[in-house]
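Re: that backbone. Tokens:
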């Protein structure tokens, strides 16, 4: 009889408890509660030394306090581990190419966060247009509407999307209900039939910048998109335009954004993501020109439940078939499950 498979877990699910119990029926799962980066590194090394080798490993959601998942952190898993499954659509904090060289898959949860993140983009759009942050501060301080100016309506505005993946498409549908026209620019253009069905117009990058009243960022973080929204591109935007970012903080050059908001080149920014999470630049948390959220877009019960199930499904599918449900790389030399 073959030995039971072993799984290392960085955290245990809060909601997908039935799926977790089912995984533990077919594999020995050794997990710990993550605290910070140093503790996760130490716990991975300890568990690997005591109980390894592991066939697969996973991490769930809410990782800002202990990511990124560096080569040094994951090295104790090898040789032997064939999968590192993580929660969320983005995986820029996972060394996917390095994992492939170790013969391991990396996997994500590509659809779990779509609608909730799109909802956050809509929320931040409305909050920015209506300056609800300053309005709430007024009410809380007893000023009521003193000093508040008239705000902008969404209807008739041009909503620009940079990066038209699943979240960008879901956001487009939602903002169209507010009466906005949607244009987009992306590395890969959608088929004409899909553009027509979604009511989208493809434009060049320069046209996106020039025409957008609201620019919403939905691209993955790569070497090409890191600090993509810089001073040069902001200069091409309309005076008084708005920025919304629910993707990754590093897509924006934060110094350039601060300068544009302070000079009033840009009217307002709605940000759910920042450089240096979970400790963003204090300027953003204090500025009246910014609405902030703590990378909260996917932080809903339904999203976390679905995402946890997809993480565990990646692990279980790999253990049973040798390939996860949602791989994002291809091992150079795949490990046997």
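Recovered sequence:
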């Amino acid at each position: 009889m073959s030995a039971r498979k072993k799984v290392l877990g960085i955290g245990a699910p809060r909601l997908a408890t039935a799926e977790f119990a089912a995984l533990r029926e077919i594999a020995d799962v050794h997990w710990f509660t993550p605290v910070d980066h140093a503790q996760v590194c130490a716990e991975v090394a300890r568990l690997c030394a005591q109980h390894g080798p592991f066939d697969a490993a996973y991490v769930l959601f809410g990782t800002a306090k202990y990511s990124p998942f560096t080569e040094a952190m994951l090295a104790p898993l090898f040789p032997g581990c064939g999968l590192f499954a993580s929660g969320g659509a983005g995986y820029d904090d996972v060394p996917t190419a390095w994992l492939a060289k170790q013969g391991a898959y990396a996997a994500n949860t590509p659809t779990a966060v779509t609608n909730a993140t799109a909802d956050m983009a809509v929320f931040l759009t409305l909050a920015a247009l209506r300056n609800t942050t300053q309005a709430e501060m007024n009410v809380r301080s007893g000023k009521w509407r003193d000093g508040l100016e008239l705000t902008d309506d969404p209807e008739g505005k041009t909503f620009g999307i940079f990066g038209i993946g699943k979240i960008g498409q879901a956001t487009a549908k939602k903002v169209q209900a507010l009466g906005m026209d949607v244009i987009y620019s992306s590395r890969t253009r959608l088929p004409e039939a899909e553009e027509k069905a979604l009511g989208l117009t493809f434009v060049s990058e320069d046209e996106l910048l020039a025409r957008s009243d609201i620019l919403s960022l939905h691209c993955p973080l790569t070497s090409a998109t890191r600090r993509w929204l810089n001073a040069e591109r902001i200069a091409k935007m309309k005076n008084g335009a708005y920025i919304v970012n629910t993707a990754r903080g590093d897509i924006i050059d934060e110094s350039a954004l601060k300068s544009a908001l302070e000079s009033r080149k840009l009217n307002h920014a709605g940000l759910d993501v920042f450089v240096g999470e979970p400790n963003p630049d204090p300027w953003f948390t204090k500025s009246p020109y910014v609405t902030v959220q703590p990378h909260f877009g996917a932080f809903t019960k339904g999203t976390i439940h679905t995402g946890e199930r997809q993480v565990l499904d990646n692990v279980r599918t790999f253990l049973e078939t040798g390939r996860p449900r949602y791989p994002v790389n291809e091992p150079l030399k795949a490990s046997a499950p």
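The chain has a mean pLDDT of 96. The first helix runs from residue 17 to 26.
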